[in-house]
Every structure is written in C-alpha cells, then in structure tokens.
Specification:
The chain is α/β, with parallel strands linked by helices. The protein has 8 helices and 6 strands, in the order βαβαβαβααβαβαα.
Amino acid sequence: MRAGLAQALFNAPPGDFAKGERGLAALPGREDEFRHAIDKALSYARVLGNGRLHVMAGLAMPGVERARQRETYVANLAHAAGAAVADGITIVIEPINTRDIPGFFLNRQDEAHAICAEVGAPNLKVQFDFYHCQVVEGDVAMKIRKYLGGFDHVQIAGVPDRNEPDVGEVNYPYLLALLDELGYGGWVGCEYRPKAGTSAGLGWAKPWLAAGR
C-alpha cells in the first residue's frame, strides 16, 4: 500500500498444498473445511481491500463420480458467493490445464461459465487465464468475445513455457488490444516464470505502461 500498489486478488486456502492439494471447492466431504477457508480468506480481504477472491476447484478424485464432485462444487461456490456479497467481493474460478496441474477438476472455459450460470450469483465470475486456455483449447480471441461479460480477471503468460508473454505462440499485442477494443476494464495479471529475472523480463510491458494501460 505504501508503494501505491493495489491488491487485485488472492487465492483462498487450497487445502494441504505440500501434499499436492490444489483446492477444496469440488471435494465431497470437505465442505466444513471449505467454509472455514472462505471465512478466513474473507477476513483477509476485508483488511487488504481487494475485491476478488480466487477459489480453486481442486483435483478430480479417483473413484468419485464427476457429477458428485460437480454438485459439491456448485454448492460450495454458492456458499462462497453468498458469504462474500455483503463485502462487495467477487468470487472467481479458474479453468487450469492438466499439464501444469495434472488432474485439476476444472479445465475449460465453457464449463466454468456454465457453472457460474448454474449458481446464478452476480458476484461469481471466471478468472480467464489466456495461457491455460491456449494449452487446453486454443481459440482465445473468440472466447474473449464470447465470454467478455462472464470473466472478471485476466492472467497472461507465454505459451508453451509459461515465460514472458512476448515469447511463444500467442499474439499478446493482438489479444490485449482486443480487450481494449471490447471495453474490458479489469486487471491483467502477469502470472509467468521470468526467464532472466523479473526486472529484465518486464521489457515487454513498457509500451503498455507508457500508454497508461
């Protein structure tokens, strides 16, 4: 805050990360733990002042029908959105590719937006990571156009190695210009692994920063 930076969002507790857990929301039998995690995350958000909270789905559970996990996921997201609404906080969910997180429950844009529609809470949106989308399904520009009203945060990284967004197969100048053209007014988060250090790797962003974007 002293540096004039804003906290855009952070992740709710994902379970036991050291043991490989990557979220609780779609895990039947862990509902009480999930609710405690949401309460804790919201208490932090009230202090930090961020308006978004990312809730990770978790991994597909061996021997558990996907439909049962999906039912749990929908119910937990409805609870999280309801708990967050009084503070003006938006819950976001993120489709993640199974190369980076093998077995992750939520992988595609269409399913993420369908789940948000099923829950029906106005403060439940999608966290649209262009990197994950490109790895799983591609056609990123058309998905931006289709789902513009349904996502509330954007993240970027180069594909395929998740380095700076000016390296790889995705045309980020085109995609970022498209966001501007369509009137997207949210954050664009840079979630990538710098090839040669953070400061050196930010050269790609200078034209955008100079333009006040």
